[in-house]
Amino acid sequence: MATMSDTRENEISVRELRKTLAGALNGVAVYGKTLYVTNHGRRIAAIVPVPVAEQNERARG
Is CATH 3.40.1620.10 the classification given to domain 7-60? Predict the structure, then answer.
């Protein structure tokens, strides 16, 4: 997984994600960085580490 120094480096297309899902998930888990999923260059989703997701859930109540 790429570093977050360049905005595009923390993005992955749906097509590429299909090919590299296991590696992408491992990268998020190991490095604790958000990975944005894009479709036709537009961000449509984010894969975040579990602590981030859990914190978001707690904040929403």
Answer: yes
